[in-house]
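Field reference: sequence -> structure
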Amino acid sequence: MAGLKLLGRGGRRVLVVVAAAIWLAAPAVVRGQPEVLTADGIPDGFRGPLRATIETTAGEWVFDLFPDRAPVTVANFVRLANRHYYDGMIIYRIGRQPPAAYSGDPLNSGQGDCGYTIADEFDNGLTNEWGTLAADNSGPDTSGGRWLINLADNFGRDGRFTVFGQYDGDRRLLEDLLTLPVDDWQRPLTPIIVKAVVIWRP
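Structure field:
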């Protein structure tokens, strides 16, 4: 069982993994993939109510995470956030059809990822509605580090992209993303930088 240490940060209790350090560093090889997380390998400390604040140059986006309904996806996101994996990445695309914002790619192109995959978690009753946080992928069971924020009700993505969080903040912050000028690749002309992803308990 993982031990957790909660540190104060701006009035919030920030989740920092202590005894799970070995789990954070150790890969698990499943189905021939470089590394695949499974529900059996998730420390108990990653369960229960969790929130994520994605701190960007366009504001702070707060999400309720769903570790009880998408445990593998949430544990992976928490692990990468606590490793500061996302720090300095950009929102590399703000798509119009379907409307969504994309990040979590070290190449900032939509072609990179964290070097391993995790299983899809579709049978959890969650849908790709407005403001949900979902795992981006390149096909079945290929999610890794990339994530997206649905900026509309994208129900056509249900059964294709695992939802693992729900936005809980000023709606205008996300709506404004669709008003930003983008280039031919739908990349914002003024870069939106992810400064940090902070995991904490409500």
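Note: Residues 1-39 have pLDDT under 50 and may be disordered.
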